[in-house]
Amino acid sequence: MTDPSPENPSAFFNAMAQAFDATIRERRARPEFIGALCLQAFDSFEGNLAIQTEGAPAVACAGDCPACCVLRVVATAPEVFLVARFVTANQRALAQRGVDLPARIAALDAFASGCSESERMALRQPCPYIESGLCLLYRLRPLACRGHASYDKDACLAATSGRDADTAISTPHLMVRSLVQNAMMSSLRSAGLAWRLYELNGAVAIALGDAEAERRWIEGDDPLLCAAIPDFDAAEIGATFDSLRA
Which of 16, 96, 169, 240 is the most exposed, fewest CB within 10 Å of its CB? Predict the structure, then answer.
């Protein structure tokens, strides 16, 4: 893949955007569209991250620490619909284990809807997908979760519990996440699909409550708009995408 180094971010962005363009063009009308788009994003992130972190210190994150899972999680529409599909497909099996995931999602949405990033963290409310300290949808977690990685588990625990702590976050994770996410968003925008960032929990609650939400999104509507994060300047971001793709 194109090297997503700081010296060549625009080339990586354009290569990724062209790849997403092709996926949207070829699979938009197919049942596997949502899964294919997310898998492409996740594979691109993981593959390029491995290149960028070769020889670097290992991060402390290994899927067994929910310290950062009180943060606001933002996601693109395809990621939202992928999570909604997971919840629907696993609802009965999880209920047999005493986990009512739709109820958890609805409860947190009612409690934290519209919160800013700092307000969401101040609530100290765990993500509804955390069970016994583990993420139920870890393999399907959004790019925002994949791109947040720390070198110090204790510092993360201190920071998210409200104590002062200098948390060392992996710059390569943030960089690759941003490049992949922005490339996919740019392609969604070019295809006439809603391309904003949404608060994950609120958007999934909408998708679970509207059986036609995914179809409407594919047809160009934005059924998740009520869960769009307020600090998203679509005009400025769109102009940046246009400049990069020119």
Answer: 96
Mean pLDDT of the chain: 88
Tell me the Ramachandran region of residue 55: left when phi exceeds 0, alpha when psi lies from -120 to 50, beta otherwise.
left
- Environment class of 2 (CB within 10 Å of its CB; exposed 0-12, middle 13-18, buried 19+): middle
pLDDT, tens only, 12-46: 999 999 999 999 999 999 999 999 999 999 999 99
pLDDT tens per residue, range 58-100 = 776 776 666 777 788 999 999 999 999 999 999 999 999 999 9
